[in-house]
Design goal:
Layout (H helix, E strand, L loop, with lengths): L4 H24 L4 H20 L11 H17 L9 H24 L20 H31 L16 H20 L2
């Protein structure tokens, strides 16, 4: 991705931490929809972290963008496949598909931006953008901005309940920290913020 290296490293830290938590959550979930959702979120978080690494440290061209596009295209198709009744909320699976397709879009934009638009040093040619369709980028930015706001509003009552009830509202009795609902929503909020920032840097 393009932009200041500091922003890139902040995105790497945010997305890697989110992906790591989702992986721990997947390990703590029994086999079923919860584990599949957590695994998909872990893949999304780690994929975003790798894509956000500043190119001066890890330049994945030319193999990186096609690999990212292929992996997340498969993830998008998997999220859209019919599943048994009750195996995950349709809206949540649709959001996963949108996120995976956004990753495919960014990977393809990276491919376009690196084809004929760089000198042999790997720098962008002056006056050339990294790639992407402005209208589609804007639509995705609006989607993830709304998602972040909605996730934040849903998270506030959970954290307030956890404080007021000394943790009683934080989840079912005996639930480990990896299955606390407010942490799940916080991770989804973090990934939404990360996706929004990556689209801005496209």
């Amino acid at each position: 991705m393009h932009g200041p290296p500091l922003i890139g490293w902040l995105l790497v830290a945010l997305c890697a931490a989110t992906g790591g938590y989702c992986l721990l959550q997947a390990r703590g979930e029994p086999p079923g929809p919860g584990r599949r959702i957590a695994g998909a979120e872990a893949l999304m978080g780690w994929g975003m972290a790798v894509m956000a690494v500043p190119p001066t440290v890890l330049d994945t061209r030319p193999w990186g963008p096609p690999a990212f596009a292929a992996v997340f295209a498969v993830a998008a198709v998997r999220a859209l496949l019919p599943v048994p009744y009750g195996a995950g909320l349709p809206g949540h699976r649709l959001h996963h598909a949108v996120g995976a397709l956004a990753m495919v879009y960014m990977a393809l934009a990276m491919m376009v931006g690196t084809t004929g638009g760089h000198h042999h040093t790997g720098e962008m040619t002056p006056g050339r953008m990294a790639g992407g369709v402005p209208l589609l980028t804007g639509a995705l930015l609006v989607y993830f901005a709304v998602y972040v706001v909605r996730s934040g509003l849903r998270l506030v009552p959970m954290t307030d309940g956890a404080v007021d009830g000394a943790g009683a509202a934080a989840g079912p009795p005996g639930a480990g920290w990896s299955r606390r609902p407010e942490l799940r929503h916080a991770c989804r909020l973090s990934m939404g913020i990360g996706m929004f920032a990556m689209l801005l840097a496209l």
